[in-house]
Amino acid sequence: MPDQEYAQGKVLIRAETNLPPCSIVVHPEFSSLIIFGTYKLEEESRKRHGTLEFWLRVTSDDDKESLIRVAELATPDSSILDAKLHPTDHNILLTAQSTGEIVIWRFAGLRAWAETVHAELLQHANNGETKNERKFDLPEHTKSADVITENEDRSVLVLSLCFAPVSPYNTLAATLTDGSIVVCVLTNSGIKVRHRLTGAHSLEAWTASFLNGSENVLFSGGDDAVLAAHDLRMASSSDSDNNESDNGYGDDIVAPVWSSQRIHSAGVTSIHSFIPTPDYQLWTGGYDDTLALVDLRITDPMLPIPPRGPTASINLGGGVWKLLPSPVAPESRMLVCCMYGGARIVDRLSTEEIASTTEPANIVASLTQGHESMVYGGAWLDEKTVVTCSFYDKAVQVWRW
Questions:
Q1: Which helix (H) or strand (E) holds 87?
Q2: pLDDT tens-place string over residues 138-157
Q3: Does any domain span residue 109?
Q4: Count of domains forming the chain
Q5: Which EC number(s) does the record attach to this protein (predicted)?
Q6: Spatial separation of the C-alpha atoms in residues 289 and 391, rounded to whole Å
Q7: 48-59 and 65-75 as β-strands: parallel, antiparallel, unpaired?
């Protein structure tokens, strides 16, 4: 990491999940509700299982803070590797499963339920009654699962999910352990596969991210250290919805527009685009501990010319697993999950600053204390407060800096 001064985060609350957590969802309209997706592989049987754990953050009138587990949903036959709320309908939660499925959870009044439970917990806290777990019935909900792997192969894991940032926000991409990326549409009846991107990665496809403002341009990163750009309009049919194969799948897109192994020296694990902005920056993170910047003014994502290398980069002291922009702080601020390096808060630099420093960001704060395992999950609670989770030690921590 660069030799500079930055703040050390302060742990406000520490808790422990029942199973190892690898993803975090914070309700956008009620940030006291925090949901953890968990993953457990039983060593003897080699079977996987997981849970969704529902927690509430409670601050009493005397400013004592606590995290309280209030409910749990089990997935006894598969683990959860990622979880995402629908961008606009916050009663719909999608989870990526270890059995090649995307599970759709539909809740009736999730926010209202959380607010009601929170009010009861606050009353207990103000009366001095402190517990880290109180069980409540979840609101009415349904669960449906759709296998998205080729030939319904249950040995392939769904690793990550991302929604296209375009209304009505029903297009999403899922990355798989076989190296493919599946572009799907969320419908009232379930998940419909639209495209299968098969030619970019020879190893696990760890991550994917749509170009900001587009549902046609997609970037992906894999364990083979490849960063790839895809144009979904390159399908063999211009109308895949009306030209599906007999198995219900849309067209395969074998070749990416471009791919490059010049950005990272190890697997590409996270991607985020700051586009459209005057900077046209694509941020990527990898197992090489590096946060890299690709300037797409130089490399047009629609031209078959791969970037020659990163425009700027910074070593964050741990594998850059997730890039999580703040929905409440300045747009330039990012929470970065750095695996064994803990987490970082970074600020994106301007084009002029990058030119003089050759780094894409400044480190604002380091969040390392108390995490003894890989930090895979994180989320923003407010402008100065975040929550992170680490895997094997099952640690959950709320930070302020």
A1: none
A2: 999 999 999 999 989 999 99
A3: yes
A4: 1
A5: 3.1.1.97
A6: 18
A7: antiparallel
Say if CB 200 and CB 220 are below 8 A apart. yes
Structure tokens at 301: 């994502």
Do the domain assignments include residue 30? yes
CA 78, CA 95: separation in Å to the nearest integer?
11
Supply angle C-alpha 177, 375, 398, rounded to 5.
Answer: 135
pTM (predicted TM-score): 0.93
Q: Is residue 278 part of a domain?
A: yes
- Cα–Cα dist 173/184, whole Å: 6
Q: Which domain holds residue 334?
A: 7-400
- Does 123 map to a domain? yes
Q: Check: CB of residue 317 under 8 Å from CB of residue 289.
A: yes
Give the pair of three-digit tokens for residue 186.
């969320």
Which residue from 122, 1, 110 is spatially nearest to 60, judged by alpha carbons?
122
- pLDDT tens readout for residues 341-388: 999 999 998 888 888 889 999 999 999 999 999 999 999 999 999 999
Give the type of residue at 145.
A
Strands, sheet with 258-260, edge to edge from the N-terminal-most edge strand: 205-210, 217-222, 227-231, 258-260
Amino acid at 50: G
Distance separating alpha carbons of residues 344 and 335, to the nearest angstrom: 6
Task: Return the structure tokens found at 384.
Answer: 């100065």
CATH of the domain at 286: 2.130.10.10
Tell me which residue has tokens 């956008």. Answer: 28
Q: Are strands 322-325 and 333-337 parallel, antiparallel or unpaired?
A: antiparallel
> How far apart, in whole angstroms, are the C-alpha atoms of residue 164 and residue 380?
20
Residue 200 near residue 247, CB atoms below 8 Å: no
Burial of 121 (C-beta count, 10 Å sphere; 0-12/13-18/19+): buried
Contact status, residue 160 vs residue 210, Cβ threshold 8 Å? no
